[in-house]
User: Which sequence fits this backbone?
């Protein structure tokens, strides 16, 4: 399948991300201004980068910040750090869920 790079309508998004697609129209349908804002914000929150891949009927979402965010160590289980650990987990999940929620607004995506 022939794939090409597409420039989106957001300069901050284009500076941070590369969109490669075999269907330009579908890329613009999925990557609405609101969705692009969610992705840029997720990168900032996790101090890393986001990779989203749409292929056939699958979506792969990865937020990479070089940390094992959901890997618990003995230190994180201590009573003094438990609330902090829970809050960090919730923040990480919320970042992922905000992107998933935006994907799910596309009723006929799949």
Assistant:
């Amino acid at each position: 399948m022939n794939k090409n790079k597409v420039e989106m309508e957001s300069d901050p998004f284009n500076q941070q991300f590369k969109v490669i697609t075999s269907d330009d129209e579908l890329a613009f349908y999925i990557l609405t201004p609101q969705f692009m804002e969610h992705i840029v914000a997720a990168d900032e929150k996790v101090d890393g980068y986001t990779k989203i891949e749409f292929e056939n009927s699958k979506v792969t979402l990865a937020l990479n910040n070089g940390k094992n965010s959901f890997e618990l160590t003995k230190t994180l289980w201590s009573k003094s750090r438990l609330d902090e650990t829970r809050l960090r987990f919730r923040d990480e999940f919320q970042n992922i869920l905000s992107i998933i929620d935006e994907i799910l607004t596309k009723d006929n995506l799949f």
Summary: Strands lie at 4-6, 19-21, 49-55, 58-64.
